[in-house]
Each structure stands twice: as structure tokens, then as C-alpha cells.
């Protein structure tokens, strides 16, 4: 029997972190479809994120992306989030959208550009100091397009040098999360293309450096849950950027393309006890809602993550261990599939009711009138850094 009391307790303390950029207009390189009521400022993005928390009860943090969310006073921004019942979470650095970064940022052959990129990363730690954020998320678009374009090993040296400088700047209780991605925008080599490269850098950097797994950043067919299990075993999984992909870095709603994969990932998380807040794994979304409305898109994503987690928590661990020990291949697989095939929606609706929330967050948001209100009040939204 799975432990339903423990599952309920774990679900009550689950937290999913939202990306501020999910609330702004986004698209592909072919077209950005503007939507009515999108935020015009970081404050409005935070207000929209607070709506997702209001209806789901498990999205208490919003991540910033600098400079997309640049403000004069970050402490005040964090205070504003607090007034709306949420917190500023991870600070994401952006060293990929400036003309200077044509040949890379921290791995650029030009020391002036490297300095500029590093200064931005250090500035992001200043932002963390002001907001009280724990995590700095680093993703580098650095790489090359053509064989011979640059020295692959020298680029690793430059990257390591910058990462060390960031590590030295981090305060107590602050961490750097290094994100990898197979390719794009660089098409020949990428300087942090996979978990192994990220892990190797983190090992050298010490305890403050952790790997972040963006579920859309692998070659098709990659066994992501294996990577998750490995990193957890090594104590180096800092967090997730959750999203779905059909082809490349699609940034679609998590659990939309492959809910079974999300379940398998969450099963590894639960097996390692990493769903407990003390484990320090950040469960973030990194998504863009190009054609669907943004707040409902986020609500649906949070619910998908919650459902996968609930199913993972319902796995009968004792029966699974017994079947595994007995070499009962089909029995072990059946234990896992039983949990995956459980309809957890009634359980989650009940838990919401216990927290004073409406049982159906999508319907409750639709009935709230918020979408109509922001469409009437906000004219001229900001663009959210689409295509990244
Ligand atoms: C890069 O593709 C990435 O996944 C990084 O996390 C960026 O910060 C983010 O997308 C921007 O959407
Ligand atoms: Mn990401
Ligand atoms: Mn991405």
C-alpha cells in the first residue's frame, strides 16, 4: 500500500516556481502574437504570477530574468511580491541578447566582452542580495557555428574563469545553478551542451554550484530521469526548468507532450527524497505561451506538475522494492504503472478544498474576471524574450 497520509503531507508543501517571462508576449522567430492584457512591467508580471498562486496554492515564487525585469529598486520589487502573497525566487542572468555577444559571452575570445558578461553576472548577484534570492541561474548561449571558428579548450578555460569569479562573489546561502543545452543558438559546438559538462564544472566549483536540468534541452530519446537520478545521487541537482518538447527547445507546457516522462522524473525525485523542501531542489517552469493565454497556461502547467508529483508519491515503495529485490520485472513495472494510471484529480481537488481553494483552478480563474480586467486596464504589453 502506498502511504496516502505521507503523500498528502508532501503535496501540501509542494512549491513550483514560475518564470516572469511566461506572462509576457512571446512567439517564434516567425511571429509574436500579441495578447490582450499582457504585463507592461515586472510588477504586472508579478501580479499575474500571484494569480497562479491564488488559484493553485502551490506557486509561491516567481523567477526574474535580468534585464527583462530590470527595475531601479529590487528590494522594493520583492516587497511588492510579498504584498501579493508570493516571493521573488531565482534570478536568471541574460548574456545572450546583446550585439557584443555575437561570438559568445563569458567564453568570447575578446576579453572586453568577457568582462562585460561577467559584470552582468555579478550584477545579478547584487539583485539576489536585494531580493533575498537563493539561486542564480546561468545559461550560456556560447558556442561556435563552424569547425575551426574558435579553440574549444580555450573556451572552456574562459568559461571556468568566469564561473569561479561568480562563485567567489556568492554570499552564504546563495547558489549558482548551471544550465546546459544541447544546441541553439550555436549550431556546431555549445560550451555547456550537456549535464556532464555542467557537472564537471560544478564539481570544480564546489558546494555552491549545482546543475539545473531543463527538460527541453536534450537530444530526442534522452533518458532524462537517469540524469536526474545520477545528479541526485551525487548531490548536484540544483533544480529543474520544466517544460515540454516535441522537437527541440519548444518551451511548451510541462506534462503536455509527455506526461509519462514527467512522472518518471518525479518518481526519481521522490525516490531520492528530493521533493522535500530541505533537499533544496528548485522546481521551476521555463515556458513560453505563444498561442495560448498565459495565466491559464501557467495554471495548467502547475497542475500538470502537481499531478505527476501526486502519482509519483502514490508509488507503493515497499512493493516496488520487494519486486525489484525478487527480480520480478513485470511486478516492479506494474507497481509503477499502477501509480501512473491512478486518477489523482479527485485527491488534488480535495486537498485544495482543505486549503480553502476552489477545486478546479482553471474554472476558478476563468470565473474570477481577472483576464477581462487586465485586458481592459493594460494597453501595450512588453515582449518577454521569446525564442530563448
Ligand atoms: C535557454 O533556452 C533557456 O532555457 C534558459 O533557461 C534561458 O534563461 C531561458 O531559456 C529563457 O527563456
Ligand atoms: Mn531553461
Ligand atoms: Mn530553453
From TrEMBL:
Protein name: L-rhamnose isomerase/sugar isomerase
UniProt keyword Manganese, yes or no: yes
Key words, A-Z: Isomerase, Manganese, Metal-binding
GO-annotated biological processes: L-lyxose metabolic process; rhamnose catabolic process
NCBIfam families: RhaI_grampos (TIGR02635)
Enzyme Commission no: 5.3.1.-, 5.3.1.14
An annotated Gene Ontology molecular function: L-rhamnose isomerase activity
InterPro entries: L-rhamnose_isomerase (IPR050337), Rhamnose_iso-rel (IPR013457), Xyl_isomerase-like_sf (IPR036237)
Amino acid at each position: 500500500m502506498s502511504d496516502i497520509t505521507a503523500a498528502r503531507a508532501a503535496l501540501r508543501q509542494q512549491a513550483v516556481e514560475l518564470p516572469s517571462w511566461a506572462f509576457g508576449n512571446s512567439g517564434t522567430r516567425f511571429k509574436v502574437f500579441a495578447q490582450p492584457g499582457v504585463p507592461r512591467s515586472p510588477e504586472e508580471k508579478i501580479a499575474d504570477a500571484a494569480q497562479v498562486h491564488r488559484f493553485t496554492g502551490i506557486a509561491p515564487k516567481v523567477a526574474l530574468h535580468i534585464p527583462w525585469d530590470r527595475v531601479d529598486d529590487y528590494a522594493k520589487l520583492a516587497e511588492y511580491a510579498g504584498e501579493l502573497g508570493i516571493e521573488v525566487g531565482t534570478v536568471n542572468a541574460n548574456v545572450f541578447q546583446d550585439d557584443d555577444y555575437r561570438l559568445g559571452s563569458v567564453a568570447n575570445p575578446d576579453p572586453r566582452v568577457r568582462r562585460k558578461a561577467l559584470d552582468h553576472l555579478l550584477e545579478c548577484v547584487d539583485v539576489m542580495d536585494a531580493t533575498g534570492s537563493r539561486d542564480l541561474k546561468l545559461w550560456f548561449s556560447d558556442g561556435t557555428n563552424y569547425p575551426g571558428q574558435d579553440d574549444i579548450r580555450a573556451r572552456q578555460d574562459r568559461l571556468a574563469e568566469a564561473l569561479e569569479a561568480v562563485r567567489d562573489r556568492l554570499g552564504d546561502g546563495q547558489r549558482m545553478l548551471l544550465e546546459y543545452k544541447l544546441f541553439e543558438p550555436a549550431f556546431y559546438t555549445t560550451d555547456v551542451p550537456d549535464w556532464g559538462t555542467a557537472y564537471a564544472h560544478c564539481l570544480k566549483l564546489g558546494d555552491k554550484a549545482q546543475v539545473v536540468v531543463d527538460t527541453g534541452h536534450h537530444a530526442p530519446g534522452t533518458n532524462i530521469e537517469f540524469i536526474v537520478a545520477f545528479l541526485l545521487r551525487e548531490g548536484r541537482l540544483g533544480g529543474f526548468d520544466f517544460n515540454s518538447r516535441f522537437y527541440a527547445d519548444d518551451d511548451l507546457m510541462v506534462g503536455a507532450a509527455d506526461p509519462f516522462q514527467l512522472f518518471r522524473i518525479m518518481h526519481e525525485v521522490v525516490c531520492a527524497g528530493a521533493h522535500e523542501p530541505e533537499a533544496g531542489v528548485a522546481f521551476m517552469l521555463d515556458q513560453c505561451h505563444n498561442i495560448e493565454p498565459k495565466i491559464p497556461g501557467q495554471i495548467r502547467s502547475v497542475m500538470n506538475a502537481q499531478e505527476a508529483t501526486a502519482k509519483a508519491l502514490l508509488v507503493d515503495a515497499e512493493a516496488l522494492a520487494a519486486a525489484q529485490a525478487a527480480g520480478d520485472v513485470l511486478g516492479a513495472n506494474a507497481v509503477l504503472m499502477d501509480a501512473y494510471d491512478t486518477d489523482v484529480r479527485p485527491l488534488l481537488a480535495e486537498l485544495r478544498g482543505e486549503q480553502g481553494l476552489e477545486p478546479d483552478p482553471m474554472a476558478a480563474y476563468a470565473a474570477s474576471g481577472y483576464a477581462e480586467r487586465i485586458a481592459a486596464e493594460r494597453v501595450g504589453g512588453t515582449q518577454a524574450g521569446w525564442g530563448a
